[in-house]
Amino acid sequence: MKIAIVGAGKLGTKVAEALVGGDHSVTVIDKNEEAIAKLSSHMDIMTITANAKELSVLENLDIESYDYLLTVTDKDEKNIFIGSMAKKLGCHSVIARVRDPEHMNQFDFIKQHFEIDSIVNPDLSITMEIYKYLVEKYTLSNGIFTSGKISLLEFPAKKFPAMIGVPMSRLKTIIPNMLLVAISRYGKIIVPHEGIVVQPEDGLYLIGEYEPITKLSEKVHERGKYTNLQKIMILGGGKTGLYLAKKLSDFGISVKIIEKEKTRCHYLAAHLDDSVIILHGDATDITLLEDENFNEMDACVTATGYDEENLLLALVAKQHGIEDVIAKVSRESYAELIGSMGIDMALNPIDIVTSNVLRFIQGSKRILSSQLIQGQAEILELVADSRMKLIDIPLKNLKLPPGAIVAAIHRGLEVIIPNGETVIKRGDRVIVLCLLSELAELEKLLRTSKSGLFSRS
Fold first, then answer.
1. Domains of the chain: which residue ranges?
2. Contact criterion met (CB below 8 Å) for 435 and 404
3. pLDDT tens sequence across 375-397
4. Which DSSP letter does residue 363 get?
5. Model pTM?
6. Nearest to residue 189, comparing CAs of 335, 10, 396?
7. What is the chain's percent helix, strand, coil content, to nearest 5?
């Protein structure tokens, strides 16, 4: 399958990493010579240093022979124009990144008028995950998600004390015919391994057959639990802050935004309801936060333009006793630091949008791909192909990335909760849970030798 990516920034690079290899032909176009040189030095892809807005660039590329074009330059209008031009030249499907809030209510028109097949918006995507967490409290509807005979259950560890303090190797005696596939710990999703021990404050994700999972749900799930969220402070009035403030205020929550750029404050005031309080100030000024009754907030979201600032402010929020603290963090190198800070949730917009892009490209191959776990991990279901690298090998011998786990297998009418000796066979429906940050590595393992997991059917 042939895929063109216009824009060699963080998102373009992340998607390219996920797709490169196998029988995929990936081409990245960017007018920045340094960015292109960096990509070509560590990835086996075709790179072109050029401005994709020029008709001749797409024509010379023979864009009509491409299955997909993803355009993720720094300008919305440029992305829309390039995507529309590629579509008119015969590219099968086009995906464009559109970030400006001015376009938010025009997505349908843009797609129809400019023939864009899909639009991705990092700030809107991360906003929806934050909103789901704050308003619904649970990332799964009613705490349980079902596919066929297999169900995934989410609940706090304190609801099942027998699991607390127990290492993974002994959990099978406590939860027979079930598998612990993920742990939410201090804002970070962990795929458990042998050395992991369940802690009292953990959130647990168990997978198993529908009936035993449903019975367990009756004992451990806090039915109808919704947040008592009334007051929230958003530190940073960028696109995420704007989207989130609008979404929360529409729900009836009192929102306060602190933004240091005066012109941005005026913009926010013009685009948000009067009920949203907008303060011009530096969110790192602790005195200002305390003057604004910081410790009385039910939740705090740190969404400035700097990861370091977001993490620092999230830590300050926790020290002030705020129950729910969420940080927007784009650098994967901060993953380990996040896990030790005690914040409730840390989201990476690049990971979330990469997942959205791959989900669109792979079509119906992933039956459960729309289900995200706290915006950090994805559940996917696929039909095992004889050409995949995971066929006929005991799971203990598979070189799965550390952030991925084979959670369950449908084999005909049989449901298999796997262990290290389990072997995946051709035709099995396999459910895998994977951290978004490791989707690129997982895709290499799941890709078939000929057409690829993400091939167009």
1. 2-120, 231-347, 354-446
2. yes
3. 888 888 888 887 777 888 999 99
4. G
5. 0.78
6. 335
7. 40, 25, 35
